[in-house]
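User: Please write out a complete single-protein record containing the residue sequence and its fold in token form, without commentary.

AI:
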Amino acid sequence: AEPSGAEGSPAQAEVVPEGAGGFAAPSRYLLLSKSTASVQELECVAEYERLKKEYEIFRVSKNNEVASMVKKEAKLDRENKRLRAELQALQKTYQKILREKESALEAKYQAMERAATFEHDRDKVKRQFKIFRETKENEIQDLLRAKRELEAKLQRLQAQGIHVFDPEESDSDDNCTDVTATGAQSEYWNGGALGSEPSMGSMMQLQQSFRGPEFAHSSIDVEGPFANINRDDWDAAVASLLQVTPLFSHSLWSNTVRCFIVSTDETQPEVDIFIRNYSPKLQRVCETMGYFFQVVHFSAENERPLKDVRKWEIEKSSLVILLLHLTLPSCLLEDCEEAFLRNPEEKPRLIYHRKEDGRVSSVSVQQLIEQISYMNKAKVIDHIGGVEEGAYEIYTCVEKIIKQDILGCEMTELEGKDLGNKQESTAPEEEVFGDVLWDAHDEQEQMEAFQQASNSTCELGFEKYFERLNDLVAAPAPIPPLLVSGGPGSGKSLLLSKWIQLQQKHSPNALILYHFVGRPMSTSSESALIIKRLTLKLMQHSWLVSPLTLDPAKLLEEFPRWLEKLSARHQGSIIIIIDSIDQIQQAEKHMKWLIDPLPVNVRVIVSVNVETCPQAWRLWPTLHLDPLNSKDVKSLISAECNSANVKLTKEQEKKLERHCRSATTCNALYVTLLGKTIACVGNTGNIDETLQQCFQCQDTVSLYRLVLRSIQESLQSDKEKGLLKEMLCVIGVSHNGVSESELMELYPELSSAVLASFVHSLHKMCLLTYGCGLLKFQHLQAWEMVRLEYMEEGANVISAYRQKLVEYFTIQLSRDRVTWRSADELPWLFQQQGDKQKLHKCLLNLFVSQNLYKRGHFAELLSYWQLVGKDKSSMAAEYFDSLKEYEKSCEGEESMICLADLYETLGRFLKDLGLLSQAVAPLQRSLEIRETALDPDHPRVAQSLHQLAGVYVQWKKFGNAEQLYKQALEISENAYGAEHPWVARELDALATLYQKQNKYEQAEQLRKKSFKIRQKAARQKGSLCGFALLRQRALQLEELTLGKDTPDNARTLNELGVLYYLQNNLETAELFLKRSLEMRERVLGPDHPDCAQSLNNLAALYNEKKHYDKAEELYEKALDIRRRALAPDHPSLAYTVKHLAVLYKKMSKRTIYENVFGVLHAQYSPRRISHLVKS
């Protein structure tokens, strides 16, 4: 209280003495400040304590929250795992329910089918009997009238005294002759000459007859030409057949008919006339069938220095022609021996021998002809006359060989006639593949790409990568695609192709679909064509014939559906492999199905360049290819050097090892190219100098540049160097490559011998390769090197070379030579040049657009029109106007038929675009022209009716469509007979129409009938695979069996047996099945399950031959082995029991038959028995 009073009374401060006041006042103020400071300090301490307690409380609460979150995370993780497990279980349950649903539907349809069939058969029999009775009554009346007329004539003749021949005196057996109407089917076929029982199948699930060797659990045993083969162990035979076996003749080298001519100076006139006058004609013949034609001839001065080139040309030639007169120079003997005496593939060979009266050929000529004739290695033409007649005789013989032996077109026509095929040249152009448009060139290009990648002998230590790929296939679903990454030239394509071969060998049930993407902006990199090709492969392996949309957006939606449809029926895994997927244009957009959930048995593997891989894909499981180690580098270089008999010193090997350590010099392509460069120098050059030049190349592109310059230095003249540059530049600026015949037309000064030497050198050094008959760069680095070496100046140089190609293909169009090449190249070149006006004009060339559309290049055609700036409606109007103008110039039946084809193509194109109202007019016009120019009952009229009906189906005008389909069916039956594949196509179309109208009973009857037709046609002639392919595969397998007794060889013999069986060659099949059984008994022992397989298949064969006693004995032996070796509920054991029971039924051993089925009832569930009986 005092301090406050003092502060409030200023009078007191004034009475304090000065001395005392000066001492006392500061002391009081100091005490006051200390007191205030202590209070503040206490407050701070209290605040600190309070904050500390709050912090502790906050920390404890947050720790508790963190602990709670951890527990929740663990709980969610467990829940996530449980849900994933449930998801997998649900997927399996879904697949199981789906199969049960299909089985239930199948049982329902079969019951409905039996009832409908009974009613139908009863009505049919009534109608047939009525018709038969009326017909016979009419025939009797006609015969009675004829008899009365003949008796009257006889009486008149006898009255005139004319002697009449008495039929009773004749010993002729004419009355016993069976006459079969033309086109009618013989009773021999109706009764089943092969002894197969009638099939009761449909597309849902068919009851198969009990004939043939045991087959695999796959989609093949449900549908397709093999539906009459029972299922069990034969997956290997079909899988090996359906994978990558080439579909083209071995006498063709990459889609080219190559004619190699060997001649002497005496026969040079015939060669000149043949090349000048007749080679263009043969070229047109081959062009019409989609092949190239190339004549290779070396003049006498070029014979010696080009020995390797000539040998290579002989090896890849389709036909070798030797022209002789009186003498045979010794320098040609080696070529003659190589071509005619060492001909392991039995390719066609021709000898032209011009003779003269009074002059005898030399001993060497006579000996060679006698030796070749003795070995039956060639056709010999002995000609006496002038050189003009001789050249024409060569031409006629060569044309016949090309058509019959190389392309097989005339033989196909003969086979078609033998099979009762009356379509001849009037049949529609498309194969019996529904309305699907298939490009054989794209397919062949893929097969060649696979073969080129897999033909390499080096393995590069791939075993560790194979294990990872195998783990992917075995891993449980769902699993994202596997990314195989690596640098340029690291061996990704080689790895995938080698692994595909291993999978086909060890997992024959696996279905592998592959696609190798080539150069960017080439056809193989177009996403729509890739998806279409893979979808068609799925359709092929499911044996379904169904319309396929060509709209890129819809195709992208349908592909996963087809994948799911096949995966639900395929017993093994389905593996999709796309190599260099990052080269596809807008890969992430067009390959978005990769990130969608795939069926459980589908696996996807894609390879990418590690530098250009899309960012979103980098999260996928990745298999990265490591750089080559020193051991692999050494083995690669040694292999190349050993092939050329070149030996390196240890010092040189050490230098190479040190050089190949960087990332760009230790990849597979660089090392391979380095080895080839050293081997090419060989023992003639300075290897050390070459090594120094190579060591300066630090990447593959620079090493390719060194290789190219060394090839240029080996050329003799500046002219040849200029031609080499021109050739490489033209190939580089083209869309898909350039053929040899096109190069020779582009550069007339380029002879076949010089071109052959160029290609040989560039092919040997991995610069160029063949693809579907076209020369193209083997690797992207080679293409990049040519661009840097020759076209570094920029767009003007590239534009000039493209303009040269434009002029060449434009001239072809002006000469009415619209081939698949001009349709592929010319619009693309205009697109790259940015010349919209010329592109528009080119697209309005109806034959160019027709060629693109018929080969399925729908998306490419649309992209061109989009570049021009036209929408769908205006595009349709312009096409229709162009056709109207073209129609004014058409005269004659042939041109009108061609016009009808153009109208039909336009209608189909507009239908695929969804312009249904505009599609009707061209299809109707096509129908009118064909009815007028041909005949209302001509098969091509049926084709028009079929296409028009398809438009009405999409338009939901089912009544109009049904009427048109029935008309097409009637015409096809009258033209081809009731069992032709084209009839099956109309039945399929009608069945689909009825199904859309919910008329399931009628649809199922038609599908059943259609399937029986396709099955029989496939068995006789071969459908998608074809018996020609079966024969080819059988020969390939037969070559593999020449060796020691091994289980693999025994299995191969077993496969040979079934392949020959499928060709109805039962004697050969029996031989191979017996050899397989004997080998298995020697190697594996008589009680091994594989022996039971051979016994079972031999029994099936004897059953087919109606040797029931032998079949019974073998079935019982197989059953005894399988009872002891397999589980009681094993499918193989069940099938053997089933086969034996059916055999007993055939042999009328009813009691034993019932006992055997009693065994089935004791060991298997009713559903399993039902499945066995149906299968």
Summary: The radius of gyration is 40 Å. The longest strand covers residues 256-263. The first helix runs from residue 2 to 8.
